Amino acid sequence: MKSLVRWGTTIGLVGSTMLVMAFSGNSPVLALTDQQIKEKLDSVPVFLITNPQGLPLSRPLQGQNGQKGGSVTGVYMSQQEAQAFINDLRAVKDKDPKLTEIVKSLQVTAVPLGVIYQQLQKTKNQPNRLVFAFKPVDQEVKGAMELLRASGQSVQQLKSPPVFAVRFAPDKGYVPIKVPTQKQEVIPLFLSEEDAKGLLSQVKPKFPKADIQVIDVDGVITTLQKKNDPWLNQVILFPDKAAREYIQKLPKNNTSSPAQKK
């Protein structure tokens, strides 16, 4: 994970006005500082579609009274889905000659989720806020919806990419785990339903009422901002398998964001 955090430096992001998928909440009592929250989010890579200079692809938003309302930038949780979007654009570029040069140079650029959070925090009090439209992994959304329906919850409660947490029981606490790089047990929040099911299968024999709670990224961040509970320091977000493999393939001496490379 350390290599991911090292290259996770701030890049110039295009966009303004209101927040589409908000990491919101101004609270007088913070369990964690903004920097601590950013460091937790840095473990999760997200993917932007950028030009060779590292500037994200964006589309204009219509403001009030017909005025320009800034731009919205897509943030993909899946590298494959971001690349698929580029491939789709290239498939239709011949129908619109104006797209040819733009589409030809597009690429998928990874940044830590913490960088997105950092940018949003910097602009949260500005009249024109940064706008990001998150693109969750379709399979994870489907799994989250099924779990919500099975538990009788509203399937419309997700405001951002789903997160899966394993509990000892619906009215009990979260299941901690041990990881070699941490001195104390950590509380895993998974971006993958499959990973959560793997932990659940280990817990079920001893705790038959154990289950998976569906949260979302926005809800996790709001909790980290508003709650003053010591256990929140143990929370770690675990990317899905594809994202973990991406991190493992990063060069060991990779110290800057691909978006900053000239």
Query: In total, how many beta strands?
Result: 9
| Strand adjacency order, main sheet | 2-3-5
> Between the first and last Cα atoms, what is the distance in angstroms?
25 Å
Strand content range? 15-25%
Round the mean pLDDT to the nearest integer and report it. Answer: 77
Protein name: Tic22 family protein
InterPro entries: Tic22-like
Pfam families: Tic22
Organism: Aetokthonos hydrillicola Thurmond2011
Describe this structure in words.
By secondary structure, this protein is of the alpha/beta class. The protein is built from nine helices and nine strands. The protein has helices at residues 2-7, 34-41, 79-92, 97-104, 113-123, 138-150, 193-203, 217-226, 241-248, and strands at residues 45-50, 58-62, 68-76, 107-112, 132-135, 162-167, 187-190, 211-216, 235-238. The longest helix is centred in the first third of the chain and has 14 residues, at 79-92. It starts with a helix and ends in a 14-residue tail after the last helix. Mean pLDDT is 77; it is low at 1-30 and 254-262. This is Tic22 family protein. It holds the Pfam family Tic22.
Quick gist of this model?
By secondary structure, this protein is an alpha/beta fold. Helices cover 34% and strands 19% of the residues.
SSE blueprint and pairings:
Blueprint: H1 2-7, H2 34-41, E1 45-50, E2 58-62, E3 68-76, H3 79-92, H4 97-104, E4 107-112, H5 113-123, E5 132-135, H6 138-150, E6 162-167, E7 187-190, H7 193-203, E8 211-216, H8 217-226, E9 235-238, H9 241-248
Parallel strand pairs: 3-5, 7-9
Antiparallel strand pairs: 1-4, 2-3, 6-8
Helix pairs in contact: 2-5
